[in-house]
Design the sequence.
């Protein structure tokens, strides 16, 4: 076979997951690493995200998924420090915590349930009265009934994170090939030998699929790709002269993320509309309603910018991590991080790099294995 490029490890997909894995592999001494990207690196879901690191606001019980999120969150302070030292880019890790508001009877029941399971699990969570919540964040709605405070749910500026990972690749000899869409994987005698675009071929000893919402579109003879669906999320932003909020603020219907540069991100829609990244009037209205419900003082502001991204979701809503097939040892998948890919990037990278170059099998590779769907029907 005449293959035009040759890598020890080929990572397909240059979002936060592919770039974070590339970095971990480089730190563990892997040889030639190439990241192939359809468009520009860091321009899809990872760019559209809100950057919340929110295991306690987003998980529903203290299960394996929660523990994966929690472990990844705990890696962030060191991850941020290392990236700053390695690249000079601050990812703006903000550890002021997250407030979760109850505004209706149903919300009160919901946050009390959340408080109960988190207290049972020994997590750091505070149940606040409305007055206590307003002391923390004076601009929240007078309709707030009570709230939870999660001191360990944080945020990062995900676009800076992507910039840092891109810079790391640039200065650490990780080859980035943009505008290159892989259509199929090349298999010979039960081994992946590379990938092709339809014209160009890339040889590799190991291939990692970090292709987010597009994972199911890749072809490989005799192999079924995991089923991953795009779920659109729209976010709108507001700008205020002075920073109105310190913490990230959730209600059960939406969230506000205050950024260092004065923007407030109001998120997010959750829409099953295929590969359509349009911004819609309905989406903007929905986001405005949720934002005003949390903080009525935003009512006089016009939205500044609105964008949409495609979250990668598996049939069960959980990440897909590890070797795709028992017969093929050199093909790995890291996808379907759905609503938590920014949060899960450092732990995913560590687990995958350990498996690929260290031969260390994290328990999460069994729990979130792509093989769990073999007997299951797609949704
Ligand atoms: P992506 O960033 O989409 O990257 C995949 C890359 O693969 C893309 O660049 C794509 O072009 C490339 N690719 C695909 N197919 C091919 C191919 N065949 N050949 C070459 N390249 C290919 N997560 C959080 O943790 N916290 C949040 O606050 C948060 N908020 C969110 C808000 C919104 C509105 C959205 C949409 C998502 C949010 N998420 C959040 C989820 C998070 O963005 C995703 O889970 C994460 O970005 C997934 O990372 P990824 O690298 O797998 O995907
Ligand atoms: N985790 C926030 C979102 O996906 O909208």
Sequence:
């Amino acid at each position: 076979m005449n293959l035009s490029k040759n890598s020890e490890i080929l990572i397909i997909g240059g979002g936060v997951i592919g770039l974070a894995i590339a970095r971990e592999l480089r730190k563990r001494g892997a040889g030639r690493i190439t990241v192939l990207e359809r468009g520009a690196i860091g321009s899809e879901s990872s760019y559209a995200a809100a950057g919340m690191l929110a295991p306690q606001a987003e998980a529903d019980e203290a299960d394996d998924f929660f523990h994966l999120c929690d472990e990844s969150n705990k890696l962030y302070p060191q991850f941020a420090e290392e990236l700053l030292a390695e690249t000079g880019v601050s990812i703006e890790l903000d550890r002021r915590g997250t407030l979760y508001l109850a505004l209706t009877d149903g919300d009160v029941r919901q946050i009390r349930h959340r408080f109960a399971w988190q207290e049972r699990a020994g997590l750091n969570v505070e149940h606040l009265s409305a007055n206590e919540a307003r002391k923390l964040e004076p601009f929240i709605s007078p309709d707030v009934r009570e709230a939870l405070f999660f001191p360990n749910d944080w945020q990062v500026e995900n676009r800076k994170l992507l910039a840092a990972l891109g810079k790391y690749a640039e200065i650490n000899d990780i080859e980035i090939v943009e505008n290159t869409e892989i259509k199929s994987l090349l298999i010979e005698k039960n081994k992946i030998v590379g990938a092709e675009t339809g014209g160009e071929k890339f040889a590799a000893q190991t291939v990692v699929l970090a292709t987010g919402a597009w994972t199911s579109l890749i072809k490989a003879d005799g192999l079924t790709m995991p089923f991953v669906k795009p779920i659109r999320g729209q976010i709108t932003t507001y700008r205020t002269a002075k920073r109105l909020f310190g913490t990230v603020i959730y209600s059960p219907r939406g969230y506000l993320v205050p950024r260092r540069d004065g923007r407030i991100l109001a998120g997010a829609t959750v829409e099953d509309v295929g590969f359509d990244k349009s911004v819609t009037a309905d989406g903007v209205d929905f986001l405005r309603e949720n934002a005003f419900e949390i903080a009525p003082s935003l009512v006089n502001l016009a939205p500044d910018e609105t964008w949409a991204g495609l979250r990668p979701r598996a049939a069960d809503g959980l990440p897909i991590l590890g070797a795709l097939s028992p017969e093929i040892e050199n093909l790995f998948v890291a996808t379907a991080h759905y609503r938590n890919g920014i949060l899960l990037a450092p732990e995913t990278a560590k687990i995958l790099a350990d498996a690929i170059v260290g031969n260390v099998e994290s328990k999460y590779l069994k729990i979130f294995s792509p093989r769990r769907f073999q007997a299951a029907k797609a949704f």
